[in-house]
Recover the amino acids of this structure.
């Protein structure tokens, strides 16, 4: 029995290591080659750079106006995630505490939003954004991303809040705590793993979105990273050092977020299974 368990662990670790290598290899290749000259990229793409150069990063920041694109995407992503987490957690808590058929109907109404891609309503969304005067403005994308992120946040957070011990909330209510106090001081600290899960799930599509910036952002000063990178590809089409440097810079926020929240993210994903 011990030998079988040992073999199972070995097989599991072999698959995990193989998966890590498969995922990490493209990232490693991109980062390493961003510090090489173009000649070295074509002659030896998988080794460490023999001639270390920061020319690609310098060109991306100075010639490509990448810094402006990066700050625009960072602003949109941070504000959108903050509003998604705030509204999603408030709505999830209300749906859990509100015991009636209408609350269940509202819950399923939000969940249906995950089944209908928002791009199907592109024309209607564009008309609304233009009528509000939000087109060609970075903050004009925020309502769209918040609306897209609320359904998945409610799905994850509602399930997580329902798994919390009911006695905690009841005890706080008996002690005279208001619903706002219970939410801020008891619920929010306990649902941090779920909030991290929601943040990671929503950050990737928001940061990488190309569709809405392409339609709504025309001026170069308000463009985001994906839209700006597509233009830099045309500008730097003959220089792979510049292209890989831009892609490396564009991937930094997602890598940092996952490294900071990976433990909470895993806890959020496994919380329901552990409860079961």
């Amino acid at each position: 029995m011990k030998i079988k368990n040992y073999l199972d662990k070995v097989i599991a670790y072999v698959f995990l290591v193989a998966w890590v290598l498969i995922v990490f290899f493209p990232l490693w290749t991109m980062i390493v080659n961003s510090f090489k000259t173009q000649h070295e990229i074509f002659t030896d793409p998988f080794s460490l750079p023999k001639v270390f150069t920061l020319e690609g990063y310098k060109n991306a920041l100075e010639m490509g106006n990448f810094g402006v694109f990066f700050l625009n995407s960072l602003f949109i992503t941070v504000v959108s995630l903050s509003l998604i987490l705030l509204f999603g957690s408030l709505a999830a808590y209300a749906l859990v505490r509100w015991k009636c058929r209408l609350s269940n109907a509202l819950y399923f109404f939000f969940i249906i939003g995950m089944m209908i891609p928002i791009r199907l309503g592109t024309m209607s969304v564009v008309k609304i954004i233009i009528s509000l005067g939000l087109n060609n403005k970075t903050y004009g994308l925020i309502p769209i991303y918040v609306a897209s992120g609320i359904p998945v946040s409610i799905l994850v957070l509602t399930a997580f809040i329902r798994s919390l011990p009911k006695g905690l909330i009841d005890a706080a209510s008996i002690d005279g705590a208001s619903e706002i106090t219970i939410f801020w001081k008891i619920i929010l600290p306990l649902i941090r793993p779920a909030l991290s899960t929601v943040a990671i799930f929503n950050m990737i599509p928001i940061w990488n979105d190309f569709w809405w910036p392409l339609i709504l952002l025309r001026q170069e000063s308000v463009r985001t990273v994906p839209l700006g990178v597509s233009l830099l590809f045309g500008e730097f089409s003959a220089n792979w050092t510049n292209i890989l440097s831009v892609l490396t810079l564009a991937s930094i926020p997602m890598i940092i977020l996952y490294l900071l929240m990976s433990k909470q993210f895993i806890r959020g994903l496994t919380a329901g299974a552990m409860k079961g």
